[in-house]
Structures are given as structure tokens and as C-alpha cells.
């Protein structure tokens, strides 16, 4: 999955062992430039895929997200993102539709599209790996602030002796763009108090907050400020777990399989019925992020075979799902 150089040239390069290459096997300057560009594009494309937590919903959409079209999207992003913003390779391309056969995910996607047209503070809640960062970036890229910086900061960085200065620093860096506050449930009381006071004043940037836990439960147990929650939750999106979203699991698996194969420059592999069956039976405690990692590991295990089978899944997934599959066949 990670060998992006042509096989023959890879051997030629590694056989030199750091020694000066002979004229016969040394690539020309244009060839070196081409190889470097391929490496950079492939790595950026792969990092982009790992960061995404959803795909597109139709075959036409998937066709529009070919490697070539994604490279064009990356170029457009580089023109609009400002200095101090995150590397464009770590941000998802602007996408209109997420994979949403599940009704709950359809609601979340619709809310994200609507919220992108406002400047209201958004709180996105969901378990680890459900796609909070993806939805936050989706909102930014489809908003009027897309041409300005998108800054992501773990909220625990505000848990410093002088939280006010840290908060002001990141607000200034975001400018007229968007500031994503990850894991707001990790904010300590002092940082919550300072942030709540600062939010009493108009901000140039837009705040998008992320939480793994139910914010109302945090307030109920005294772990989070009710005032701060009110300020951060002008709009709210709840993301469902991946478990039980069988149709979404299959579409996500096919999408990321296609994209990983394209990034590695190999023929697309097919997902066997037994492979898909175990994917839908598994509980996915790591949600979409775990599914993405599982697809990559399966492709590595599959080698040159054309299909992915149950044997290509990690052992813990096979162990946890095979007995469920057997029970289902017996009608239990």
C-alpha cells in the first residue's frame, strides 16, 4: 500500500545503498522531478483519505472524486487557504454529500449543509471515530469563511496557568475563519470560565466545538459550565455510531477500498460477500476511523489477490464475528 515508486526504479534506488549511482541507472532530472511529484501527491492523497470519515453517496459522486479530480481540488485549496492554516492535505475536499443510507446520518448531513450557511457556533457530539472533525471541516469549506484559515486546537491546550492568553492567541490566528475546539469536555473549570467571558464579546472567527460525551450529562454532573454550553451550542449535530449502519458500512468499505487502491496505483480489489458480512456484524468500537484502518490492513494482507476475504480481516474481528455469522446461518 505504501510503495508508490515503480517497482523497477525502487530496486535500482535501494540497491545503491546510499552510494553514487552509475550513469547507466541514474534517472534523469525530469524523471526525478516526476517521481518526487508522484510521492508527494500519493502521500497527500492517502493522508487526506485517512482524515476523511465519510465518502460520497452515489456512483456518479464517486466518479467525480477520482484521484485526478482530487488533485485539482487540492490545487484549489492551496489558492484559498491562508498562511497559518493547516496543511491542505489534512483537510477533506469540499464534498456535497456524505454516505448516508442511515436516517440518522442523513439528518446530520442535512444539518451540516444548513449550518454551513450561517455563522452560528456549532457543537458536534459523537463517539471517537464517528466523523466529528470531518463534519466540522465540511461546514467550514462550504461556508462563506472557506477562503479564511481553518484552525484545529485540542481544548486541553487551554488548561494552562494563563488560559486567557492561549485562547486569544488561537482566536487571533483563526482571524475571520473557523476555529475547531476538539474535546471540549476536557476543558478545566478555569479555562471554561475564561472562554465563557470571552464569548460574551463578538468574535471575528466562527467556533465549531467537538465533544465525545453528551454535553447535557456533563452539565448535569457538574463537569461543564451550563453558560459555556449555551454559548457553544447555538447549533447542534449528533453523530450516530457506525455499528448497525449496515448499508453505510458496505458503501464506506467499497469507497475506501477504491480510494486506497487508486492511491497505491493498483487494480481495485473486490469485497467478497463473506468479507462484507463480517464487516456488518462487527461492533466497530472505533467507528469509521477503525473501518478505514481495517480496510488498509486488509489490502496489505491481501497482496496480489483480486478479492478481499474474511481471512484478510484482523484476527480480533474474525474471532468476534465468525460465531455470530454461524449463529445467523443456523437461524439462532
UniProtKB/TrEMBL annotation:
Family annotation (CDD domains): AAA
Origin superkingdom: Bacteria
GO molecular function: ATP binding
Gene3D superfamilies, A to Z: 1.10.8.60, P-loop containing nucleotide triphosphate hydrolases
Keywords, in A-Z order: ATP-binding, Nucleotide-binding, Transcription, Transcription regulation
Transmembrane segments: none
Stretches the record annotates as Disordered: 65-95
PROSITE patterns: SIGMA54_INTERACT_3 (PS00688), SIGMA54_INTERACT_4 (PS50045)
Organism: Pelovirga terrestris
Domain Sigma-54 factor interaction: 98-300
Designated name of the protein: Sigma 54-interacting transcriptional regulator
Single Gene Ontology BP annotation: regulation of DNA-templated transcription
Coiled coil regions, renumbered to chain: none
